């Protein structure tokens, strides 16, 4: 499966139940131009789940020559904020999508209110004086019908006067609601006289103090879709049972009725996709904000170094389903690696340094003699060219690349063993220096000058190539290494606040790496592959000129692929 994926140069046109439906609607003439929308509530930052909804609605519009709207579903002023509106716009653009028009549900408050009066006049809505608790109690259950409110039989005239009073601020918060008059015994609980408006004195970031009644989701969403001429309103499965109500409102008003189609939510192992829980992580100080590189928010993934193209490719690959499921994080990482492999420049850096001393270096190991060796910038991209890296008699190598007593299957450096130093020379280990406690503090070697560039003229082979950085030229840089934020692949399984108990205490580790000199100038926002280690991303926030901070985006090793083959 993955071999096929890396060769996917000409992807087949995507097809699935939504696209088939749309094709049929276009063919039958029911729809002339496809119009979709992405309708986030500006009460938090977008996360990886939203990336799927965004990719779906925007790419469907693109594929069918249609339009896609960005609509702020800002009907609930309590948790909403302009900060989130701005962030959502920036994040959608970052993913590479541009909306054809932007709207705010709050701009429809006037139209919605007029429509509410129309339903009241038709006897299809009434004002109820029961409190929220009573309304919820009298709703019945899946097996028992609900009970009619004692206020259900108010006349349209009475209801109209009361609704106007609600709008005009004559009643206290929570003392009255407007409900649709449908059927308190309906098999679908959402149709048991759902609440349309509640009284809430709270300024709205867009409409200020103009309104003290705010529409509920079901009363605003379908109507907003209708006003905008949305043809296919794509939403997640939990809204399936709301579709009859969506349709009921449009039919009762006699307005244009878009087609709502539901698809499965995206879930990824070790990641939470609930804004409420993500907020808890931020507010509880468990992460360093919404853009912490361990967060599944688009801001977090971006800061971690996930390329937007990889997220979109992942979302397209997982496609859409009718059943909620969870994707392996290795699959997401596959797409990140796949993209970075082609685009990230290679560099050498040592995370856990051990000194290597070349005894036969001209002028002595600590001397001034330097050889500039040629290193390729990206073997996947010849156009990326090469650079010169200084090689000297004292080098840093990775501690784990040396073992004094190597087991059978260890082919890297060991006493008496010869290996290649990438782009440099063959070196052969002659011994070690130890401190008083017996720890190896340096590895002694000789080098073979005839192997410059990495090959022996006599054709002799080595079994390993390791990376290195010349001690005298090394630049020290902060490197942040990440593991999963949770110890359990399904942190959402814990209800309530229990997911906090599943936080991985080792999800972030910081270390000082010795880097080749060119990395001193690493610009924020650049991706690198540190050879043999991982992909790294230069942080925007904490990097300083000459002192970059690197986030480990994803390791090179493809555990996923291995497990599969
Ligand atoms: P939360 O429950 O975390 O607050 P939400 O679904 O209420 O998320 P919205 O801002 O209302 O957040 O979501 C905007 C759109 O994104 C909706 O159409 C919603 O269905 C979709 N969406 C949200 N989460 C996911 C997900 N995990 N997978 C796919 N689509 C999602
Ligand atoms: Mg929502």
What does this protein look like?
This protein is of the alpha/beta class. Among the domains are: 33-263, HUPs (Rossmann fold, 3-Layer(aba) Sandwich); 347-474, Ribosomal Protein L25, Chain P (Beta Barrel). The chain is built from 14 helices and 27 strands. The strands form seven sheets. It has a seven-stranded mixed sheet with strand order 12-25-26-27-23-24-13, with helices on one face. A seven-stranded mixed sheet has the order 21-18-19-20-14-17-22, with no helix packed on it. A four-stranded antiparallel sheet has the order 4-5-6-7. Helix 8 (217-227) packs across helix 9 (243-253) and helix 12 (308-318) crosses helix 13. 40% of the residues are buried. The structure holds adenosine-5'-triphosphate and magnesium ion (MG). Adenosine-5'-triphosphate is lined by residues 39-41, 49-50, 52-53, 73, 235-236, 265-266, 273-275.
Count of helix runs: 14
The CATH superfamily label of the domain at 33-263 reads HUPs
Low-confidence spans: 1-11, 560-565
CATH domain class name of the domain at 33-263: Alpha Beta
Question: What is the residue-mean pLDDT, rounded to a whole number?
Answer: 94
Compounds present? adenosine-5'-triphosphate, magnesium ion
Structural class: alpha/beta
Just name the CATH architecture of the domain at 33-263. Answer: 3-Layer(aba) Sandwich
Spatial sequence of strands, sheet with the most strands:
12-25-26-27-23-24-13
